[in-house]
From TrEMBL:
Protein name, entry field: allantoinase
Gene: allB
Lineage, uppermost ranks: Bacteria, Bacillati, Actinomycetota, Actinomycetes, Frankiales
GO biological process: allantoin catabolic process; purine nucleobase catabolic process
Known cofactor(s): Zn(2+)
A molecular function (GO) term: cobalt ion binding
Assembly and interaction partners: Homotetramer.
Alphabetical list of Pfam families matching this protein: ALN_composite (PF24890), Amidohydro_1 (PF01979)
Gene3D superfamilies recorded: Metal-dependent hydrolases
Organism expressing this protein natively: Frankia nepalensis
């Protein structure tokens, strides 16, 4: 489908300056769940009070006219590793959420690792909430964790659920940090029976440890070595097992950061069978190919790995066909020493990509090249992830929703300057890459949050 654009859309003023607060914001391209329309969005009490025709504005209203700039819902990134407390030298709430705001992301959900302690008890959750309070630029929710040979206890799961976590994360393969051990399929099945009774979402790093154990270990500067160490079969075997587990337990299971497009066959079969299995992917799997990763460029290392060009195209096909609930960053930064920048050794480097500030633009770059439109972008990075997490008041421009808004120029582009990124370490595979779209302003509940502004984010809890 072609990118939406009104033929008669006026050009924006050359000296347009975003206000600190919006009361009414008007655009020829307001991206709503029903499509892209010319409209005036009325904000009151931090929420969207009305969406009217552009000229249906009271004489005394403070109107921000965007002209031809698009108005998008704030993105919802449900897969972010903030790492605080415990590994704040990798990333922290202040830096991560400033980066999110700068990139048009207004809500993040923090993973239970790599913080110390991990979020596997209410006490750990409260410690994380306490350190986050007062320094977050966007709204922040939290996942709980399922760990160890016997999984997290039934009592811990129930207490964390009652305390408002958005669900529970487990690893089928080693996580990379000793305080968050992976679980066997048997342990996950026991936990899934409990999460099914709670009605909770269980999200899983889905790689088969037996396949990984049989693969050659990664070592040295060659990216091909890292790629061989995490073959697609590790993902396909794990996804098939999760589909079977969803059928056996009725638990809501979600496959995190799918990289191997071959696994989409099982995802499609599960969907057709009505099984409660969902899946996400990440901007880096839709942006980079194994063929282009330079040897020694450990900023590209992630697990599962970036795969070949043909795989990327199949992932895009799956996204367009609606097989993914959304695209989220899996923002997992680390300091240059932990990323083995000095040696370029893929065997020793931490596996994680820093991209919370760049995700929506990276997705838009690929979407635009494939003739997708702004409504698709909003569904993939905002509405879909919000719905999946149960955030009905986020990720959409609709009456009653939070006025989380992004002023976006979809026709412009710029080269990523890593030094200008807001996350703690300016180390990302997107450095020097041209991305389409420019974020001109980000609003949280109608107040501007990008740039050097006081933190205005709130801590979120799952409702219901």
């Amino acid at each position: 489908m072609p990118a939406e654009r009104s033929a008669a859309a006026p050009k924006r003023p050359k000296a347009w300056e975003p206000p600190e607060r919006v009361e009414v914001v008007r655009s020829r391209r307001v991206v709503t769940p029903g499509g892209v329309i010319a409209a005036a969005v009325h904000v009151a009490g931090g929420r969207i009070a009305a969406i009217t025709a552009p000229d249906e504005v009271g004489p005394d209203a403070a109107v921000t006219d965007l002209g031809d700039l698009a108005l998008l819902p704030g993105a919802v990134d449900a897969h972010v590793h903030v790492n605080e407390p415990g590994r704040t030298h990798w990333e922290g709430f202040a830096t991560a959420t400033r980066a999110a705001a700068a990139g048009g992301v207004t809500t993040i959900i923090d993973m239970p690792l790599n913080s110390i302690p991990p979020t596997t008890s209410v006490a750990a959750l409260e410690a994380k909430r306490a350190v986050a309070a007062g320094q977050i630029s966007v709204d922040v929710g939290f996942w709980g964790g399922i760990i160890g040979a016997d999984a997290t206890s039934v009592r811990d799961l129930a207490e964390l659920h009652d305390a408002g976590v958005f669900g529970f994360k487990a690893f089928l393969a080693p996580s990379g940090v000793e305080e968050f051990p992976h679980v066997s399929m048997e342990a996950l099945a026991a936990a899934a029976r409990h999460t099914a009774r709670l009605g909770a979402l269980t999200v899983v790093h889905a790689e088969s440890p037996s396949v990984l154990d049989a693969a050659p270990a990664a070592a040295g500067r060659a990216f091909a070595s890292w790629l061989r160490s995490r073959p697609p079969a590790a993902e396909t075997e794990a996804v098939a097992a999760l589909a079977a587990l969803a059928g056996a337990t009725g638990a809501r299971l979600h496959v995190l950061h799918l990289a191997a497009a071959e696994a989409l066959d099982d995802v499609l079969a599960a969907r057709d069978a009505g099984l409660p299995l969902t899946v996400e992917t990440c901007p880096h799997y839709l942006s980079f190919t194994a063929e282009e990763v330079p040897d020694g460029a450990t900023e590209f290392k992630c697990a599962p790995p970036i795969r070949e060009r043909a795989n990327l195209e199949r992932l895009w096909d799956g996204l367009v066909e609606g097989l993914f609930v959304g695209v989220v960053s899996d923002h997992s930064p680390a300091s240059p020493d932990v990323k083995s920048v000095d040696t370029g050794d893929f065997g020793t480097a931490w596996g994680g990509i820093a991209s919370v500030q760049l995700g929506p633009r990276a997705v838009w770059t690929g979407a635009r090249a494939r003739s997708a439109g702004l409504a698709d972008l909003a569904r993939w990075v905002a509405t879909g992830p919000a719905d999946h997490a149960g955030l009905a008041h986020k990720g959409r421009i609709a009456v009653g929703a939070d006025a989380d808004l992004v002023v976006f120029d979809p026709e412009s582009s710029s080269v990523v300057d890593a030094a200008a990124l807001a996350h703690r370490h300016p180390l990302t595979p997107y450095a020097g890459r041209t991305l389409d779209g420019v974020v001109h302003a980000t609003y949280l509940r109608g107040r501007r949050i990008d740039g050097d502004r006081p933190p205005r984010g709130q801590l979120l809890s799952r409702s219901g």
